[in-house]
Write a structure and sequence with these properties.
69 residues; mainly alpha
């Protein structure tokens, strides 16, 4: 059972990053709106833009934290 737990950790370790979590959710929401939900192209672009803005904000915050200490 320990090897199974180690196997899952090896594949899912990138999900510990906030940037990866936001990117995955952004892609899922954009795909869902494109495929299943009937929304305008503007909505899809808005979702992608907010996702990119969040990722850049997190990166900026991480860079500031690394510089300070």
């Amino acid at each position: 059972m320990n090897s199974t737990s180690t196997g899952w950790r090896r594949w899912l370790w990138p999900l510990r990053s906030r940037k990866v979590q936001v990117a995955v959710v952004t892609v899922i929401v954009a795909y869902a709106t494109q495929v299943g939900l009937t929304v305008s192209e503007e909505m899809v672009l808005t979702v992608l833009s907010v996702g990119v803005a969040l990722i850049l904000g997190i990166a900026h915050e991480d860079a500031g934290r690394a510089r300070v200490g």
